[in-house]
Amino acid sequence: MTAVTVATPSLAPSTGVRRVFRQLRRDPTGMLGATICTVFLVTAALAPLLAPNAAQGRGATDVGARELAPGWAHLFGTDHLGRDLLSRVLLGSRPALGSAAAVVALAVLIGVPIGLVAGFRGGLLGEALMRVTDLFLSFPPLLLAMVIAALLGPTLLHAAIALAISWWPWYARLTRSVTQSLRREPFIDAARVFGVREPVILIRHVLRNAATPILVQATIDGGTVILAIGSLSFLGLGAQPPTPDWGLMVADGRTTVLTEWWIATFPGLAIFVVALGLNLLGDALRDILDPRSGR
Amino acid sequence: MTLLSIDNLAVDFVRDGQVVSHALRGIDLSLDDGSALGVVGETGCGKTLTGLSTLRMLPPGARATGRVTFDGRDVLTLPEAELRNLRGKEISMVFQSPGTSFNPVFTIGSQLEQVARRHLGLRGAAKRDVVVETLRKVELPDPERTMRFYPHELSGGMLQRAMIAMAILCRPRLLIADEPTTALDVSIAEQILRLLRSLQQEYGFAVFFISHDLDLVGDFCDRIAVLYAGRVVETGTARELLERPRHPYTKALLEALPRHAQPGAMLPAVPGNVPTGLDDPVGCSFAERCPLAVADCTARRPLLAPIEERRSVACFRWEET
User: Fold this and answer.
1) Chain B residues inside the 8 Å CB shell of A208
2) What is the ipTM score, two decimals?
3) For the domain A18-54+68-293, what is the CATH superfamily, name and number?
């Protein structure tokens, strides 16, 4: 028999999660994003322990210590009701991250299956699903939030529901466009040739390949949703006092931003930094999670 | 024994209730157990579609009539569940472009394991062993390690070997090879063909070999069928057909092979164009390009008829070819 020589690839086989971490370490902005996100997650988890005054963080007032400038006693200063702003900002990470995660999760859960079916099946069903999607897309989120707040009362939960309702169509569209291009891939036909059932093809082959852009979008959207929740709370359509909500705190400090600048600035900074972190992480994940980007 | 027989298979493409193309216009082919049939023809003549019909893998909008009988079962009317058990197990396929035929997000090993689980019902170590063993059969180095690679980490030749491994994993009785070497360079193509032949000898599966390369098909196959515009124009044993082509189209194809060219001279080409999918000439589809055409050729269509044992031609003037 003739010897057959086949070149062996020089690179080692790569394994999922470890590869992501390895590549993340080589990407400074991605690393920054990941660090910011980790810090905020840890903060949210341990907020009551980290906060110098957890009770004030939750709303207890101390009118004797009103509007104190940042100093050693109160690193971020105090607000109009004498509450320690550092504690408020730390505890505020909980409703912010929690509601953002809920909104994105809900949007993904509704939008992805719809986009998947619309893109894979196409035809009349696909058209119908996408027209319904367009219908939801045409609701202005702010207006919808106001309507819901007016009907059901302004709470953080209602604001989150309003956002999810106007957010899922983006996931339906994204998933559909990815699915449509995947549907024609030879490996999908190859799966059929090997006797794989349609639902299995849809989940194992299509969804698995669409997962990367969806995950990236969800990460970036996390930041956008935090901004949106902040805006709704700022307008009084979301969380209500005394919830330690960043948007609400910015609204609270708005009138005195020239004199007591710290009241609006620190919660505003928190929103800015966490949104930035999620964006940077999302961008880095986009590059890393594509298995073809290699190395 | 006949393993696969295709009788009067026609495939039309329909859009909005209208036929937009007659892709196959009545194909008759048969393939014996363990033999290799080469199906040749130019782009668009229906080679691949014939192969896919064997698995009932019809593209959207395609409508098939006729019969495709595999081992006594009519593939075109088989219930969906039985069809899925046939696909990849009794009939499997090797594709033209190995690079895009694997799912990019799974390792080679896991994709082969999925097939082993689906068709052989294997789990755990048994499943893994079958995959490793099959990867070794296709002469991939270090199968345990190769299994852990993603498709983009392997070369085209290695991927095609892995593809072949996936195709023979369940010991199929029929392997459809759709231009398995077109995307590979010449030396690798040679290796892949040698591999396919030795596997065929070892396992005894039949091969439905689709190609546009007459030499390659002549080398690999026992019998050859030449397709033109959705019909079989000539069949015969590989040697017979290549040495004494009886259809003017086959002859023209053979003359156009570069190895027959005189140095410095232009390569001979077949004049004219292939009829479009909607043309439906009364006579022979090849008549207007044929050097031997007479009035009769455009008046009525020559049917594929046996001229010798196991040799058929669809031409009125085959004796003069």
Assistant:
1) 103, 105-106
2) 0.86
3) MetI-like (1.10.3720.10)
